[in-house]
Amino acid sequence: MNHFNTFLSMLILCLLTSLFVSGQTKDAAATDSISSNGINYADNTFFSPRIINGHSTEVTPQNRLDFKIEHRFGLINQGYSQLFGLDQAYTFIGFEYGIKDWWMVGINRTLIDKTVAAFTKLAVLRQSTGAKEMPLTLTLLLESSAIGTVYSDPVQNNDFGARLSYTVQVLAARKFTDNLSAQVSPVWIHRNVAPDPTDNKDLFAMGFAASYKITPNFSINGEYYPVIGPSAFYKQNYHNSLSFGVDIHTFGHVFQIMLTNSTGTIEKNFIGETTDDWSKGGLHLGFNLLRKFQL
Fold first, then answer.
1. Number of domains present in the structure of the chain
2. CB neighbours of residue 200 within 10 Å
3. CATH number (domain holding residue 219)
4. pLDDT digit string, tens, across residues 140-196
């Protein structure tokens, strides 16, 4: 019940915050910014640097620190005895900082395999009209992660290189209207040791995502990551990650609630190691809470 109480408390807090500060909150879907040289840049393509599990093209702006908590609960189909999964939780805690408006870094830890991940995102192109025409926003993600699980085998436990994985992803998004945005994001993941000797160390996937703003501070989102050319082991044991959710944007917070078949929250886990299947009721309720601090 502790996990359920945490979830309920955060939900109530964000809903109350949205009511009290709605008059102060900057319109997240506001018209795009216009620079002094006549370039009209697309702003707020997405509410958050993450759409659901995966990254978006958004980059944390300069001198802003984001604190992020993510929860993925147990399987909903476990029924009331496990409070439909709310008695269990897979947690994620992270800090992300904007060095420049086009460059951010982050570090996080997830309960799954006690993994620590560090990443950087670089905004390469920015969608614009006017004096400079650019049809999309392009961002590069580089990430490295290390498993922290303590193994019983001392040889395995001391092989640090075997714990490492690397991710390279290109995030390409377009804001079609003030309400509708979509993203395509090819990704390569290399694992120094695959989950099974018959599995591939390298994974390739193509992420698809979309967001539609119902109101200036509320959106619905979808995200799908099919693996390209999966191994026989992957086909037998894993499933492509599929998630749907909503964003609630308030003053200084973004609160996301989702349904997903993934418990993982970093690319290595949710793209390469999702074990549950939507068609068999393998769904998890989850939430992300982002708190912004301007330094």
1. 1
2. 19
3. 2.40.160.40
4. 999 999 998 887 667 666 778 888 999 999 999 999 999 999 999 999 999 998 888
